[in-house]
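Exercise: predict the fold of this chain.
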Amino acid sequence: MKMMLIAALMITFPAIVVIGYGLMSNSYSIWPALASLAAGSFPFILGGIWLYFNHKQGRDHGIDEH
């Protein structure tokens, strides 16, 4: 649960920062902000998915003993 919260923060915090910056710098164009956001958050999304499935698999096999 804590890991999912951290992953969610890692994805949403850059999103807020990048979109806010994009809106402040030029309010008519959000596409560059969205593009850089997608590029920046891509590893975090992949990492989150990997963590989720890794944890789920470990729990299913009963080796969740850390």
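Check your answer against the key: The chain has one domain: 1-62.
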